[in-house]
Every structure is written in C-alpha cells, then in structure tokens.
Amino acid sequence: MKFIIEKDYASMSRVAANILLGEMYRDRRVNLAITAGSTPVKMYEYLVEDVKGKDYLTNVHYYNFDEIPVIGENGYGVTMGNLDKLYFSPAAISAEQIHVLDENNYLQQDERIKDDGGLDLILLGIGADGHYCGNLPGTTKFENMTSQVSVDATPGMRDILIEEVGGDASKCPDYYVTMGPASVMQSKRILLFATGAKKAAIIRQAFFGPVTNDVPSSLLQTHPNITILLDEAAAAEIQDLL
Ligand code: GLP
C-alpha cells in the first residue's frame, strides 16, 4: 500500500487529478472507473480544465461502478447523473468514451470490462462505515462480482437510498447495482481517496485492521497496486503507523 498525505482538500484533489492524468497520457486505450460523491468535486474541477478540448485524450474510456436506478433530469441514474454534471458535460467527454453501467446491463459489466482490456485504474471514495461503491457492510461479500443489491439487504439501507435520491421516500428504488469486491480487485490499480476528520477512524480500521466483510474496504489492503490518498485530517489516526 502506498500512502500519500496532502495538507488539505485542495492539494489532495490536485494530486488525485495528477494521478488520473498520469494514466490518461499513456499512448494506448486507457480504462478508468471513476467515483461520484462529494469527495471528488474539487478533483473534477481541476480535471475539467486539464482535459477539456484535448482531442489526444480520446484514448480514455470511462466506466461508472455503481448505479441507483432513479432517472434524473439528464436522463441518467443517480451516479451517472452526478458524474455527468461534475465531469462528463463540463469536460465535453464524447459519448463513445462513456460506458454506462445500469440496471439493464449489470450482468454484462464484468465481461464487458474484460473484453475492453480490463480497468487500468478504479478511483474509489470510502464511507465512514467502510463501504466503497455499493459494497456496504452486510450487503455484498468479498467474492461477489457486479450484482444487484436489494433495498432490504440490511436494516438501514432504505434510509441510505432515500438520502441518495434527495430525501423523497416515494422515489426510493427497490435495488441498486454495483461492481462487487471481486470485480474491483481485478482493476490493475486502485486509487482510494478521503478527506476530513469524519473519515479518520475508518481509514485506520480499513487499512490497519483485520480483513473482514464487516469492513468491506478492508479487502483492498490485499491489492498489489493500491494508492491511498488522504488529506491530513483523514490521516489523523494513522500518522503513528506510517
Ligand atoms: C456513495 C458512493 C460511493 C462513495 C461514497 C462516499 O455511497 N456510491 O462510491 O464512495 O458515496 O461518498 P463521499 O465522497 O460523498 O463521502
């Protein structure tokens, strides 16, 4: 595991963008799975400026790794809608470069990525409960590939999904789809990033505690090429271990 600790959210975001750019500038097709959520907002601001208008970066192909099938204004589900707003639209990424995972094609996701040459990098955020993608404690297991997860998978799931769809309980879907732990581990490289004190405890547990399904992200410790990028606040509880 390689740890990079940056002073604050802005410099962490700059480094995250730099790492993605390093992959993008390869002289061949590059496959990236990228995250939505609040952590990447600043990184996408940087990337939009770095990528927009560069025709030579059409070698980069993008994949979303989870989706909540509630269609928003832009015609996408929650995750893709977010990625579209933060990055694809402002950076003018062409449709041929965007490979949508949704409730209709999730059973083909792993095979499709394999046929495309595999993921070069997957960019992950982490929840305070240790989840990444849609792999929450008590939902998927380490051996799962891309699958559908029911709203009844765990007791708190309905509330989480209601929040994800903007707080309206009538819009809560019956399920979501996500790349599973085994799918994520097939990526050649993992970049996981976190910001703020509310992530400090889980960073210690996930990367210095036991590998257990109770903390889904603990599996990522065993990946041969993982970079964990943090700001100082998120790294506060591991400084003595590095
Ligand atoms: C959602 C996403 C996850 C993401 C997590 C953390 O659950 N599906 O992929 O890692 O949020 O989000 P944030 O960056 O807002 O803390």
Automatic annotation (TrEMBL):
Domain Glucosamine/galactosamine-6-phosphate isomerase residues, every copy: 25-223
Keyword Hydrolase found: yes
InterPro entries on file: Glc/Gal-6P_isomerase, GlcN6P_deaminase-like, Glucosamine6P_isomerase, Glucosamine6P_isomerase_CS, NagB/RpiA_transferase-like
Top-level enzyme category: hydrolase
Keyword line: Carbohydrate metabolism, Hydrolase
EC number: 3.5.99.6
Superkingdom per UniProt: Bacteria
GO biological process: carbohydrate metabolic process; N-acetylglucosamine metabolic process
One annotated GO molecular function: glucosamine-6-phosphate deaminase activity
Name of the protein this chain belongs to: Glucosamine-6-phosphate deaminase
